[in-house]
């Protein structure tokens, strides 16, 4: 089979890669730089130990940044720092020498000539014996910041090497004894300073800032890339997980090699090879009629893996890094970058876009969009890059041992500009914008286009809208407005169906009413029925909005929508109530029924007369356990103000009076009403239970039979003790009716009596 276009495209971009590198080094004569430190004066170079000690006397322990904080922790970073305000850098030729050096470094980093680099002093660092800086990444303090420049001053020392990591590769830089050594590296490179073993290491660090016009048109094989894009967007996709061919993809996600911050992600500040590749892709996108934007991707890979020997990370790693050259090979096998695990096969990979810039490149949005593998293209496989996190799991069921690795990568995301396809591609990432665009079309009376665009959302709309209640709440109002403006009732229903009932609030009443007017009552009823479908809420808490929501719906002329919501809500509460009253165990049943008191109150406050009467009748028909729901509801602060509760109070009073009036059980009546499953064992058990006189039953019974009888007794919560006498064969099951048979009934009667007294005074029932 021909290679998919997205793979050809990745290959094309590989062939055109310029000779850029993630770090670059050069030397400059020591005399070109003159450093003056406040309170000390000029610092002669090469530096000697007494001078270094003087520097330390005006320095402070260096801090390091972690997230938003700046910390001082000598187990992470142990070095002395002099801040830029204490420094004056000069020398007759310094600015021209630095300018030339920066231009050479720019070239070595693969950046175009149109771009210029500027170095902004950050600090002067002095490392004495044993001092170091653990692996870290510098924070990008400025939008234009591209990386870091470290200028090591000539000074005799051993150890104290600057080690720069990128994509499984690392480079070690030793400072010169006689010259200035300049090392520049991109901001996404982890780097460290190994402990100084003797002497002093002194460095000047600079933020590297990039300036220059954005590169607009990439040279090279734009025509081939254009052909690949066209092919990608017109050929049915194939997925390793699906045998049937899919629709042609609506998106191509090309993964870049470097990681970027949200602020730092823009076309003219891409790093190393990313820059040229993105420019080529952008030019090809224009030719192929595609939109191209930048994005950030979170990538997770799961590999089959096993540890190699015992090469664990140990304290000596500072000194033996040359021995650890672990290169992953083409197919991903081989040793991982740490040299700790042998990778076997790639089990799974998962790519999520987390940030998407706007087509005009000005801003971006936080998104969470999963990208299927048939939309992904990358010249550099993840395995060739350095993960920001890795975790090894021992034996994992089907897969044996696994190694999970996580990467952050920049990405170029492309989609066909063709109207509806571009709309769909953008909408999946940003449903909010899709709704705004649809509203704008509707407001401009372009309902034909709005209809077609809205319809194109169908394949992914449910997933796109399936966020938390807050996300949904942000979308529902617009979705209702759009639905009300669409000609097609089916498309309007598709747009609204994925919202959940919990999201629906009184503020949505007007929107829902408008949509119901546009598409009819039956449409609204079946939409609401869909909200009560399999994805309906598991709990009934959301019903607290019903009184206000239904009042607002009626006021907006959508009484039938209100009724549909109430019918649905009542059927959920009714089902919970019926399940609840049947529970035999009081300790489980009581709290469940008590909790249903609130939804029932809200329903009463929301319903019309007809439904209220239906509910009252249903409650009347329930068994006496329904009191465990109704009495707490009648005692709630809202009860007196709730229409229809007077009738409930009267019904309860009648029910309670009947319970109080029951003749107490004869002291010699040990009969228990019960019915079993109809099997022979249940027949025997039933005969014993219903007998007035028998209290104890001794029953030789094998294990399976004993278990059946236990289960029957326990699930019905019968006042019967069951014990097994482990003598003879089979053992004997001894059943004993307990006095709870009497006390339970007495308790029910005395609770009923006190409830009745309270009802009579609080509700004036007679
Ligand atoms: O001293 C060095 O070479 C590097 C210091 C460093 O990494 C930093 O200041 O972030
Ligand atoms: Fe650093």
UniProtKB/TrEMBL annotation:
<dbReference type="InterPro" id="IPR044862">
    <property type="entry name" value="Pro_4_hyd_alph_FE2OG_OXY"/>
</dbReference>
<dbReference type="InterPro" id="IPR005123">
    <property type="entry name" value="Oxoglu/Fe-dep_dioxygenase_dom"/>
</dbReference>
<keyword id="KW-0479">Metal-binding</keyword>
<dbReference type="GO" id="GO:0005506">
    <property type="term" value="F:iron ion binding"/>
</dbReference>
<keyword id="KW-0408">Iron</keyword>
<protein>
    <submittedName>
        <fullName>2OG-Fe(II) oxygenase</fullName>
    </submittedName>
</protein>
<keyword id="KW-0847">Vitamin C</keyword>
<dbReference type="GO" id="GO:0016705">
    <property type="term" value="F:oxidoreductase activity, acting on paired donors, with incorporation or reduction of molecular oxygen"/>
</dbReference>
<feature type="region of interest" description="Disordered">
    <location>
        <begin position="321"/>
        <end position="340"/>
    </location>
</feature>
<dbReference type="GO" id="GO:0051213">
    <property type="term" value="F:dioxygenase activity"/>
</dbReference>
<keyword id="KW-0223">Dioxygenase</keyword>
<feature type="domain" description="Fe2OG dioxygenase">
    <location>
        <begin position="113"/>
        <end position="210"/>
    </location>
</feature>
<dbReference type="InterPro" id="IPR006620">
    <property type="entry name" value="Pro_4_hyd_alph"/>
</dbReference>
<dbReference type="Pfam" id="PF13640">
    <property type="entry name" value="2OG-FeII_Oxy_3"/>
</dbReference>
<keyword id="KW-0560">Oxidoreductase</keyword>
<dbReference type="GO" id="GO:0031418">
    <property type="term" value="F:L-ascorbic acid binding"/>
</dbReference>
């Amino acid at each position: 089979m021909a290679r998919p276009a997205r793979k050809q495209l990745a290959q094309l971009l590989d062939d055109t890669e310029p000779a850029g590198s993630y770090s670059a080094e050069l030397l400059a004569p020591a005399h070109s730089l003159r450093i003056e430190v406040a309170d000390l004066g000029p610092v002669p170079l090469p530096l000697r130990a007494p001078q270094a000690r003087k520097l330390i006397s005006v320095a402070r322990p260096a801090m390091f940044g972690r997230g938003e904080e700046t910390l001082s922790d000598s187990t992470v970073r142990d070095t002395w720092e002099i801040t830029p305000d204490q420094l004056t850098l000069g020398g007759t030729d310094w600015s021209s020498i630095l300018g030339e050096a920066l231009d050479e470094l720019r070239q070595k980093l693969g950046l175009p000539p149109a771009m210029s680099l500027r170095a902004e002093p950050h600090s002067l660092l002095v490392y004495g014996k044993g001092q170091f800086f653990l692996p870290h990444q510098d924070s990008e303090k400025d939008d234009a910041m591209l990386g870091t420049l470290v200028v090591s001053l000539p000074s005799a020392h051993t150890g104290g090497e600057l080690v720069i990591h990128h994509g499984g590769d690392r480079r070690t830089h030793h400072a010169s004894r006689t010259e200035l050594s300049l090392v520049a590296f991109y901001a996404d490179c982890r780097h460290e300073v190994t402990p100084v073993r003797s002497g002093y290491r002194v460095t000047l660090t600079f933020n590297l800032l990039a300036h220059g016009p954005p590169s607009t048109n990439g040279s090279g094989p734009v025509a081939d890339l254009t052909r690949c894009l066209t092919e990608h967007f017109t050929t049915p996709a194939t997925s390793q997980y699906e045998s049937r061919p899919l629709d042609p993809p609506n998106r191509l996600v090309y993964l870049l090699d470097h990681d970027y911050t949200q602020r730092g992600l823009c076309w003219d500040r891409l790093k190393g090879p990313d820059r040229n590749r993105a420019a080529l892709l952008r030019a090809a996108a224009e030719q192929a009629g595609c939109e191209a934007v930048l994005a950030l991707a979170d990538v997770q890979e799961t590999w089959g893996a096993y540890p190699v020997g015992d090469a664990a990370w140990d304290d000596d790693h500072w000194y033996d890094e040359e021995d650890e050259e672990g290169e992953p090979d083409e197919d991903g096998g081989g040793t991982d970058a740490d040299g700790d695990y042998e990778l076997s096969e790639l089990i799974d990979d998962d790519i999520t876009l987390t940030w998407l810039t706007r087509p005009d490149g000005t801003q971006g949005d936080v998104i969470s969009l999963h990208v299927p593998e048939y939309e992904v293209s990358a010249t550099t496989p993840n395995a060739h890059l350095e993960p920001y996190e890795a975790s090894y799991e021992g034996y994992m069921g089907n897969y044996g041992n696994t190694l999970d690795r996580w990467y952050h990568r920049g990405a170029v995301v492309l989609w066909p500009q063709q109207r509806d396809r571009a709309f769909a591609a953008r909408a999946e990432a940003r449903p909010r914008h899709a709704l705004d665009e649809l509203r704008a079309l509707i407001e401009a009376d372009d309902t034909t286009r709005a209809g077609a665009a809205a319809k194109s959302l169908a394949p992914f709309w449910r997933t796109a809208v399936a966020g938390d209640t807050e996300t949904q709440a942000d979308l529902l109002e617009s979705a209702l407005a759009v639905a009300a403006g669409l000609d097609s009732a089916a498309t309007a229903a598709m747009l609204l169906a994925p919202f959940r009932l919990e999201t629906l609030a009184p503020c949505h009443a007007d929107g829902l009413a408008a949509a119901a007017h546009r598409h009819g009552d039956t449409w609204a009823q079946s939409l609401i029925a869909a909200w009560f479908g399999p994805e309906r809420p598991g709990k009934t808490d959301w019903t607290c909005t019903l009184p206000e929501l239904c009042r607002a719906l009626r006021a907006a002329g959508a009484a039938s929508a209100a009724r549909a919501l109430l019918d649905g809500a009542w059927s959920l509460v009714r089902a919970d109530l019926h399940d609840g009253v049947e529970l035999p165990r009081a300790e489980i049943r009581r709290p469940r029924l008590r909790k249903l008191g609130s939804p029932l109150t809200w329903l009463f406050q929301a319903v019309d007369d007809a439904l209220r009467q239906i509910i009252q009748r249903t409650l009347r028909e329930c068994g006496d356990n329904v009191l465990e729901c109704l009495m707490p509801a009648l005692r709630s602060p809202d009860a007196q103000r709730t229409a229809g509760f007077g009738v409930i109070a009267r019904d309860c009073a009648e029910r309670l009076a009947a319970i109080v009036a029951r003749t107490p059980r004869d002291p010699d009546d040990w009969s228990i009403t019960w019915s079993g499953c109809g099997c022979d064992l249940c027949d025997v058990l039933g005969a014993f239970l219903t007998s007035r006189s028998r209290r104890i039953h001794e029953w030789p019974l094998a294990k399976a039979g004993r278990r059946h009888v236990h289960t029957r007794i326990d699930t019905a919560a019968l006042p019967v003790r069951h014990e097994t006498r482990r003598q003879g064969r089979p053992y004997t099951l001894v059943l004993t009716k307990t006095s709870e048979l009497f006390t339970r009934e007495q308790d029910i009667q005395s609770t009923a009596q006190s409830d009745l007294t309270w009802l009579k005074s609080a509700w004036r029932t007679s």
